[in-house]
Amino acid sequence: MIPTTLGILLVTFVLFHVVGGSPAQVVLGKNASAASLAAFDAKFGYDKPLFCGCWIGLRALPDDGAGGGKRWTAGMVPLAYPLPAGTYRLQNAGHADPAAGANQAVALQASIQALEGGGPARVVVAEAHGPFRALSFAVPEGWHATELRLIGAVPDRLRLRRRTDGFFDSQLCHFLGGLARGDLGMSADYGQTVWQVLRRGVGPSLAVTVPILVGGTVLALGLGLLCAMWRAGGLDRTILLVSTLLMSVNYVVWVLLGQYVLAFRLRLFPIWGFADWTYVLLPVLIGVVGGLGRDIRFFRAVMLDEIYKPYVRTAWAKGLTGTQVMLRHVLRNSLSPIVTYVSLSIPFLFTGSLLLESFYGIPGLGCVSLNAMHSSDMAVVRAVVIIGALLYQVVNLLTDLCYAWLDPRVRLT
Description:
Blueprint: H1 2-19, H2 23-28, H3 34-44, E1 55-57, E2 76-77, E3 86-92, E4 105-114, E5 122-129, E6 134-139, E7 143-151, E8 158-163, H4 171-180, H5 194-229, H6 234-248, H7 251-265, H8 281-307, H9 310-317, H10 322-333, H11 335-343, H12 348-351, H13 354-360, H14 365-374, H15 378-406
Antiparallel strand pairs: 1-8, 2-7, 3-6, 3-8, 4-5, 4-7
Helix pairs in contact: 1-4, 1-15, 5-6, 5-8, 5-14, 6-8, 7-8, 7-13, 9-10, 11-15, 13-14, 14-15
């Protein structure tokens, strides 16, 4: 479970931090200013290396679209936004001016002003002798750099980097450290912590998904027992026919049909909202009906696998009634596959039902996830994916432990 969980977290990090591109550009758009993108990165922790490193590139220099930095023909190096306190390095991303001497001195002047803006500017000079490769300078606390000037050999391309607090001061380390502390980050759309956003949706989601799971499982299990007890009879064939019809209708059709006929036409249920408990009756009914046919057929097949075994014939020979045989023997020995089947649905109790919550206006986690995807709120979407994956891991572990409790032939070694 431990290596699988670490693999899930690593894949999730790569999907949301690497494959998806810059989160700042996804949220703010490609036309956002460099200052806005930098502020977004600093606020949500994206201004660090992805995996590890001591330096991280900045957006403070204009770019010509070629990926190597802006071409320069003069000594002035404009900044898109003031540089806060920290250690910086201006690097040559291209080639020095061939007309310059090989041993010509290069000087970098950084104009540093107080944050209040009232104090005089200080000039910091960083010098390098020989062909220009990199020049470093520091901005002290309470100050910011407003202007850079390069004196000497002029490179054709430049990159500006900032020094991190350490080699492991990266997005991955902060991501794993935050998860260890229970910190899922900040929501860019709501301006709150992800836990606060998810906490509001847990109650409505559980109000819908728990009755669907419990009611659907109990009803399907009872009908599966009846089919197995009177197999090949009229009741069995009728239930199988109804189950097949239920499975043949798409889940979205049940949602739309229930909302239009039962809520809009017949006025038996509220159409939209989550004001009180009556608003979840129709979604629960649709959820139970939508999965009932599949559950009945599975439970029936499990019962029939057990009912022809020798121990069942022995129970009949002892004179036990049909109810006693089905409940005390058949059902008990069928619990292992039933627990496995039901456990697959447990993680969805917390992540919510996307279709039901969207169509019936229930502010659960499914609706929160859909809104987060529409607004590119990556922190919330990432948290829902992680919670769902971790719940699967925990439920699988508990299911394995239940096997030893249900079946005396299974031992934990």
